[in-house]
Amino acid sequence: MMLAPLDARRGRDLVARFAGLPVLVVGDIMLDRFIVGHVTRISPEAPVPVVRFRSEHVRLGGAANVAHNILALGGRVSLVGIVGKDAAADRLRAELTAAGASVDGLVEDAARPTTEKVRVVTERNQQVARIDYEDDGEAGAGVEGEIVARIGALGRGARALLVSDYLKGAVTRAVIEALVALEASGAPLIVDPKIPHLALYAGATLVTPNHHEAEAATDRRIRTDDEAREAAREFRARAACEAVLITRGEHGMWLSAPNEEGAIASVAREVSDVTGAGDTVVATLALALAAGATLAEAAVLANHAAGVAVGKFGPATVSPAELLAQFTIEN
Question: Which domains does the chain have, with CATH numbers?
Answer without folding.
Answer: 8-29+64-101+138-330 (3.40.1190.20)
